[in-house]
Write a structure and sequence with these properties.
Helices cover 27% and strands 27% of the residues. The protein has eight helices and 20 strands. Strands 1, 2, 9, 10, 11, 12, 19 and 20 form an eight-stranded mixed β-sheet that branches. Strand 15 and strand 16 form a beta hairpin. Helix 1 packs parallel to helix 5 and helix 2 crosses helix 8. The chain starts with 6 loop residues before the first strand and ends with a helix. The mean pLDDT is 95.
């Protein structure tokens, strides 16, 4: 049954992934597009609460969806930033190993080689000292293609391109129900005035971040154990005092914490050279959007960073901000991965679930694939 719809395409979520999809649809000259966002503005959730790192692709199994999109997205992101005046810095990073961790570093190096990550090599203790005099490590892996980016400027650029294509955005609105209607979908939306109304679309792109599995459950129910569902990992950051500003030139990472599916408490910086540590990783038993930073965790951050920053003092740290990462676990002791799929049982419905790190790096590649699927199916 052919249904007359309000929009050809509805995107649920205006974080970096939803906006990247909108940007790619604008390039494809798709103009009947609505973006629904629960916050007061775009990019105010998970997308604004991360390290703003452009990842290289060294960590992910070669056959994973994360590896595919990170490796495809990295070069696209650097080029997009250059062309659109988005601030970034291709600073590179050091993944440091202490005594007894050399075999872990070798395994990570082998994974980087398997993923064809460029400009990667091992440096010894002296090499680390030459690159970063304030950093102490027995050895390290230098990763030259890693960088940092202004997530706000990046999302603003995506949003600008979408609005130039006359895409509509509906803020302070939450999807509370879904109903298939012939070859389309009817979304029940709760608006900022607490009044419910409906909107219909031929295509639905579920890019709802922390709530992406819940949006999908409106369609397929919540009792199907083979469907993806999310776990949540809260990560906090502590900033360093101004005496540390511009103290390192590269990002500094410890070896990953596989037990917590985390890259460990690392040292990164922003456009002004201000330094921060984080994130840590705490699995949330009862999910809520609680972004408070527990100051009691300061000593744990201090001890973790002290291993590679021997001159660090605990008084240098103060609480900064936190983020919550949606984790789609693939199995016991297995790393999380993305769920990116045009659902075969629900034509016109695309799920983007569990997009945590490296989602920022992968955003352009994900957005372009989604736009291509829609364009090819619609033509």
């Amino acid at each position: 049954m052919i249904v007359q719809t309000d929009y050809e395409i509805i995107i649920v979520g205006a974080g970096v992934i939803g906006l990247a999809v909108a940007r790619a649809l604008a390039i494809e000259e798709k103009r009947s597009v609505l973006i629904i966002e629960k916050e007061m503005g775009f990019g105010q959730g998970t997308s604004s609460r991360n390290s703003e790192v452009i990842h290289s692709g060294i960590y992910y199994p070669s056959n994973s969806i994360k590896a595919k999109y990170c490796l495809n997205g990295r070069a696209k992101l650097y080029e997009f930033c250059r062309r659109n005046n988005v601030w970034y810095k291709n600073c590179g990073k050091l993944v440091v190993a202490q005594i007894g961790q050399e075999s872990q570093l070798t395994s990570l190096f082998e994974q980087a080689q398997a993923n064809d990550v460029p400009d990667v090599h091992i440096v010894d203790r002296l090499g680390v000292s030459k690159l970063e005099p304030t950093v102490s490590a027995e050895s390290a892996m230098f990763v030259g293609c890693t960088g940092i980016v202004s997530a706000h400027e990046l999302m603003s650029a995506y949003h600008r391109i979408a609005t130039q294509a006359d895409h509509d955005i509906l803020l302070r609105s939450t999807v509370v129900g879904v109903e298939p209607k012939g070859d389309a979908y009817l979304l029940e939306v709760k608006g900022s005035d607490d009044i419910n109304y409906t909107v219909t679309g031929r295509w639905i792109v579920n890019a709802a971040g922390l709530y992406s599995d819940k949006i999908a459950q409106f369609l397929w129910g919540n009792n199907n154990i083979i469907r993806p569902s999310l776990s949540y990992s809260k990560g906090s950051y502590f900033k360093l005092s101004t005496k540390w500003r511009h103290s390192v030139r590269h990002l500094i990472y410890p070896l990953p914490d596989k037990e917590k599916d985390s890259l460990g408490i690392h040292l990164s910086f922003d456009q002004a050279g201000n330094m921060k540590l984080g994130p840590d990783a705490t699995w949330m038993q009862n999910y809520s959007e609680d972004y408070d930073v527990n100051s009691d965790n300061l000593n744990a951050f201090y001890l973790a960073a002290k291993r590679y920053l021997p001159s660090l003092e605990s008084i240098d740290l103060s609480p900064d901000y936190s983020g919550i990462r949606p984790k789609l676990m693939t199995g016991p002791n297995e790393p999380s991965d993305f769920y990116i799929r045009h659902e075969p049982d629900y034509p016109g419905w695309i799920n983007l679930i569990g997009i945590d790190s490296p989602g920022l790096t992968s955003s352009l590649a994900i957005g372009e694939d989604v736009a291509r699927w829609i364009t090819n199916e619609s033509s």
